[in-house]
Every structure is written in structure tokens, then in C-alpha cells.
Amino acid sequence: MAGVELRNLRKSFGKVEVLKGLDLKVEDGEFVALVGPSGCGKSTLLRILAGLEEETAGDVLIGGEVVNDLSPRERNIAMVFQSYALYPHMTVAENMGFNLKISSKPKAEIKARVQETAEILDLVHLLDRKPSQLSGGQRQRVAMGRALVRNPDVFLFDEPLSNLDAKLRVQMREEIKRLHHKVRTTKIYVTHDQIEAMTLADRVVILDRGIIQQVGTPTELYRNPANAFVAGFIGSPAMNFLPGMLQSDSDTARIELEDGSVLTAPRKPNHPRDGKVLLGLRPEHIMLGEGTGTSNALTGRIDLIEPTGAQNHLRIKLGGQSTTVVDNNLTEVELGQNVAVHVDPDKIHIFEAGNTA
Amino acid sequence: MTKLVRLLPRISMQAFLMVSVCITIFPFVWVAMMGTHSRSEIYSSPPPFYFGTRLLENYEKLLEVMPFWTVLGNSLLVSVLGTIVTVLFCSMCAFGFFAYEFRGKNIVFGVMVASMMVPPVLTLIPFFLTVKFLGILDTHFALWFPTSANAMGIFLIRQYMVTSVSRDLLDAAKVDGASDLRIYWSVVLPLIKPVLATLAIIVFIALWNNFLTPLIVISSPEKYVLTLALRSLQSVANTPWGAVMLGTFMSMIPLLLAFLFFSKQMMAGLTAGAVKG
Lengths: 357, 277
Ligand SMILES: Nc1ncnc2c1ncn2[C@@H]1O[C@H](COP(=O)(O)OP(=O)(O)O)[C@@H](O)[C@H]1O
Ligand SMILES: [Mg+2]
Hints:
The complex is a heterodimer. In chain A, 24% of the residues lie in helices and 36% in strands. Chain A contains nine helices and 20 strands. In chain A, the strands form four sheets. Chain A has a six-stranded mixed beta sheet, with helices on both faces. In chain A, strands 13-12-11-14-20 form a five-stranded antiparallel beta sheet. A five-stranded antiparallel beta sheet of chain A has the order 15-19-16-17-18, with no helix packed on it. In chain A, 39% of the residues are buried. Chain B is an all-alpha fold. Chain B has a domain at 66-232: MetI-like (MetI-like fold). Chain B is built from 14 helices and no strands. The A-B interface holds A 47, 50-52, 71-73, 77-79, 81-83, 85-89, 98-99, 102-103, 146, 150 and B 166, 168-169, 171-179, 182, 186-187, 190-191. The structure holds adenosine-5'-diphosphate (ADP) and magnesium ion (MG).
């Protein structure tokens, strides 16, 4: 078991700088998810951690020691690949035991450890099969078993669930979470799916354009996004952004929207300076109805109604912008109707203009 | 009637294949038949298109004019050794081109592929001079070793690797702690068996049938290979054609066996790229 640390890590492919100086500390036994849009350098970072790719500058530390010059073999990390990368010509048992065989462990020990891991992952009846005879979910479990059996210091996952169908993905997500409670090894989990990251991880790292945008627990990221990118990336449906003008004094922030309506919120230290800003409103924080005295009231026309069963997703034109609203009360509304909505001042986010997901 | 019309394409297809097969195997059958006739019977008119009775005589004659089994042994040695070493070297070299990034890789690979365009006859004299310089004239080594890392084999295997071995697999093996040699041996080789079989049979046939190289390299009769030995008989006045035909036929048998053995993998290897795209 060991923690992982990155110090000013940089990576360029030729002239293209993919990672632009990352600093991150992952505690021993922690489950950290690394999220970001496709192509933002997540896999590259993971491959550098694994020793498959060489960093351009900076340090990688595992268990407090700089491992820059160590081969993958010497780092004692295990990695689960998006494509699973199971050896097609080996049986499940051979796939799982390959690492142990290379380390010249006795046959009996290999057999026992493979058996033990197979029991944890419910793979015992599949041990003699070849990967081609397995379903997607089973292959996924074998790939995890191959990592687990080695008892590594650090687990790396590169979008392990993205090749599974939606239902199986949810199921495997739960299994991974349960696994982490059983095997408390440091885990770094890469995904482009924010829900996966939020549900699994102790802490989530948001990466975009080669820079860490924010690190925090899922709740922190949801409540206090550091910038519009993070705010737009976390949460589903995504946050609404409305351009406006900010005017603030020592304890209130007053935002005038494009159509002239005005919202007020308590002034927070992380608010940008007065002028053009982006107002962030989560769909679930815009309530239908007049609201009470302190809340901000707006009106708008309903453009679209999408019932999902438990909730209705509405598109309402607010402040000159088409805005998503989640209505948990399943209020009876009609298309084209003008409705009043209100927003709790505490739930209003204000960001610098021009930096959204 | 309609049934017949429907079956017509299939029938004509099979008829066509049948005729092709007959044309292909005719020389083999012909040689086998000639091996059972005496010289005068062969020269009679019309030539006898049936199996004769002189098989044993021809066999004795064959052993009299050449040490057939020694020569067959030489051919086997050269072909088997050459095939094994060629498959090994070519696959190692292809693995290098496939798995590593290094400066000038594309240039080296390009030059190598371009060298396949040079007609082999052009290289005959340089080949002879090189072999002579190395002091391996009149050895079997000079027959199989110089071609054991050849461009065609490397190219064939590398292309197959590109389509059938994923890069993630190499990475997974590295993370599993496998050394480069281990990855080559335990991960890559088992996955490219079909193309190894293909290359093996191509190389085996080429070495077995090779006439030019032995002709310029080998001078001692006890080191002759089959092609050379059978050819040398034809310069004798009164060539014992029955014996030559018998020897020729017997020299084809190892090839037939090898083909029977490998044909399935070989077809898989030759068509794999086409199917997978
Ligand atoms: N070997 C490479 N050579 C050149 N560019 C690369 C290489 N690997 C990745 N990249 C580039 O680095 C960027 C990040 O890639 P990657 O880490 O795979 O993104 P992600 O996993 O977040 O989708 C991409 O723009 C990609 O084109
Ligand atoms: Mg990726």
C-alpha cells in the first residue's frame, strides 16, 4: 500500500503540451477519480503513473519515493485497461496468474491466489475459459481480477466501464465500490463520466486542457465549483449559465440579466469583480412558483416538457436564455404557458464570463 | 428443369474447379507414372499413361547414380534448419518494428521493403562474392543462413502483428512485469501462429526448391541437395529418365507432407489481413 504524489508533472508529445504542470497528492488507501472531457490527457497521466510513458518534466512519487526512472515492473502497480487487454490465448486462470508466474511464484501459491481472487469476483466457474468465451461484464471482472491477484500498491483504472452497456455499468460500479471497501488499496480511476466519478470516489480531480481545475469530495465539487468549467461538468442535467452584469457591495451581489430582471445573492469571497459575469443556476435549484420574500423571482415561457417519470424536465426561457428546470413535484404545466420560478439566493453561483464546459 | 437451372451455376463452378485440379496435379501424376517405366518405355510412342512395372529397377538405378538418401538428408537439413531460424529471426525483427519506437524506424523499414523489389538474380554474384569472402563456400550453412532474416518474412509478420496484436496487450504485459523477451515469447508469438505457419511453409518450399544458390555455393557431390543432384544426372549421356522421375517424385513427398500439416494455419495466415481489414 502506498500513496501517490505528482509534482509539477508535465508531458508533451512533440510540440503539443498535453499535461501542463499537475500537482496532486493521493493518500494511501484513497479512491480518487480523475474526470475530464475526452482528449484532456487522462490516459496519458495514467500511463505516466504506470511507467508506460515517460514524463517530460516533474516527478511521480509512489509510497514517498520518486519512481520516474523505474519500469512498470518495478513500480508494483496494476492497471485495468479500457479494452480489458486480456491475453486472448490464455485461460482466465492463466490471465490472472501471468504476473505471479513471471515473478516465479510457486505453482501452488499461484493457484491458491487465483482461486481466492476468483471467489471475490465470482469467477470460479470461468477459470478454464478463454476470454473470447466470456461476456463483456465477465471480461471486465477478469481484468480486475488480474489486477487484484497481484496485491499491488496502487490500482489504476482507465475508463474500465465505458465498453459496457448502461445497466451493466451501474452493476459493475457497485461491484467496484464494494471491492474498494474490501480491498483498501490506493485507487486512481479515470473516467469521462462524472456520475461514475461522483458515485465511486472519495475525492474527484477535474482535469481540463492539461490543468487540474479542482480537487475535492463529490459534495464540495457540487456545492462550491471553483469555476464555470467544473460547475458545468459536475451535475446532471448540467448547470444553466446565464450572462449578466454584476454589481456588488460588501455583503450582497446583484446581477442584472439580459432581459432586465435582477437576482441578488449573498456576496462570497470567490465571486469575480463587478462587470460581465456568468450566472450559474442548477436545474434542480430553480423552483416553480412565487417563492417566499427572500428568494429571487423570475418568469418565463415553457418551451419544452420532458417527463422522466419521477421528475419533469422543463425548458423555460429565463433572462433571455433557454434554461433547464427540474421539477420534482410534477406540477401540471402546459407548453407555452408563462410560469413564475424562484431561486434561493444561497444556490446562485457567479463565475467569470467566458469559461464554460 | 427449374431445379437444374438453379443448380447450373454451382455445377459449372464445380466443373471448373475439377478441371483446374486435374491440370494442377497432372504433372505430379505424370512424374509418378514415369518413375515406374524404363527409359525405352518412356520414349515409346505414344508415351505410356499408366503405372508400369519397373519401380524397383528404377529405384536401384537411382541409388546407383546418386546417394539419394544422403542428398535427401542434406535437403531436409538445410530446409528444416533454415525454416526454423528464418521464422525465429523474422518474427524477432518484426517484433522490433512493431513494438518499439526509435529514430529512423520508418526509413529502415522503407528501405527494407524496397529491397524486396530487387530481382534475386541481380544479387547472385554479390551473394557469391560475400559467401566466398566469409569462407563459407561449399557449406550447407551458406544455403540457409544468409536468407534467414529476409525482408519478405519481416514485412509479412509485422503486418500481421499490426492487425492481430493490440498495443494495450503489450502495455498490459509490461504492467504485469514481463520483460521484452517475455512479451515476445509468451504474448506475441502465440498470437501470430498462423502467420508463422505461413512463413514457415513459404520458406520451406523456397529452400527445398532452391537450385541457384546450391549451384553456385556447393561443389562437393556429397554435400549436394536434391535439386542439384537430380539436375546433375541429366548431363550424363543416356540419362536414366525412369530413375530421375522416381527421384523427382520422391523429392516432392516432404513438401506434400509439410503442406498437409500446415495448410490450415497457412490459409488462416494468408487471409487474416484481408478479413480483418
Ligand atoms: N503517443 C502519442 N503521441 C502523440 N499524441 C498523443 C499520444 N498519446 C496521446 N496523445 C494526445 O494527447 C492528448 C490526450 O490524450 P489522452 O491522454 O489519451 O486523452 P484522454 O484519455 O483524456 O481521452 C490527445 O490530444 C492525444 O491526441
Ligand atoms: Mg483515454
